[in-house]
Amino acid sequence: MTISAEVLDLADRVEAFVREVVFPHEHDPRRDAHGAPTDALVQELRDKARAAGVLTPHIRPDGSHRSQRETAVLLTRSGLTPLGSLACNTNAPDEGNMYLIAHVGSPELKARFLPQMHDGRARSAFLMTEPWEDGGAGADPSMLKTTCRRDGNHWVVNGRKCFITGFEGATIGIVMARAEEGACMFLVDLPDPAIRIKHIPNTIDSSMPGGHATLAIENLRIPADQMLGKAGEGFKYAQVRLSPARLSHCMRWLGACQRAQEIATDYACRREAFGKVLIDHEGVGFKLAENKILLQQCELMIDWCAGVLDTGDLGTVESSMTKVAVSEALMTVADNCVQVMGGTGVTGKTIVETVFREIRAFRIYDGPTEVHKWSLAKKIKRDWKTAQA
């Protein structure tokens, strides 16, 4: 599939907006206690993105989603700085939540929740992960402990959640819980007094407003018509969201590492030591060369996986492979950039240090590398057994 001239032009405008308007805000002091941009800063930038015609670029004016290959071009450009994804409304968890609602929600739920999300007026949260101390769901959603039971025209939910990205300040939530029929998903308005924030930990990453909250859910009553899809099919819907969401993370963080490479290259071409600029020292120049190779490999891997998803295939295996390959490669890229820049690389003078921290977290969320490799190994064994039969 060829990317249309219209999408390429839009991508150019997204990049120009991010570079000209968003980059100057990278050191904006409006940050919360955990270092994330405040909602005031995010809304200011979204107003500017809206005026520039680059808000939510991966959604067409009619509300439909662009293809995954088109989305890759747009999200990579918006991701040139972590703040760019927030400004353009292509950030997690909102981008994945919009995708899920569009594919699973009833017409009524789509009409109620999606317009405010597409317009960048609402932030959302995906309530799936649970505390390990309770034996709850993490990388293995089948361990889901939060319960839901039918009570007349409502469902009543009880349980605990943790690492719920963006919950504080969100106005829309997708809650995952287990019923007798199996896993279920619900759309809820936030805040709700039945969902209390117990704790927001300090984490290595700081790009997402609202932090990663630990929550207590006590007798949350949800109207039955706010269930996403059918009771018992929540795990299937989770894969509808998670496969493309893994790929979207790869797209955004590819953009961030491309920017880190730009900064490290500029530094290495200007900084002199031992009689020549740093890039002329093999130990430095080779790291930037390795980065260039890895960035190209990541771009190709993302494009390949996007093509698979665009065929209508759920792409679970392909997205797992891509998430592992890209997250590990980008970790090397970010680390090389820090190393090339020496002491400057570990300071807040540029966003290289921020990108390094964010990529380190990326290797864990939406499934750590080890879980994806374990899943792939199981498939290899199944395929072998099939071939022997």
TrEMBL record:
Homodimer. It comes from Novosphingobium aerophilum. The keyword Translocase does not apply. Belongs to the acyl-CoA dehydrogenase family. Its cofactor is FAD. This is Acyl-CoA dehydrogenase. PANTHER family: ACYL-COA DEHYDROGENASE FAMILY MEMBER 11, MEDIUM-CHAIN SPECIFIC ACYL-COA DEHYDROGENASE, MITOCHONDRIAL-RELATED. Pfam families: Acyl-CoA_dh_1 (PF00441), Acyl-CoA_dh_M (PF02770), Acyl-CoA_dh_N (PF02771).
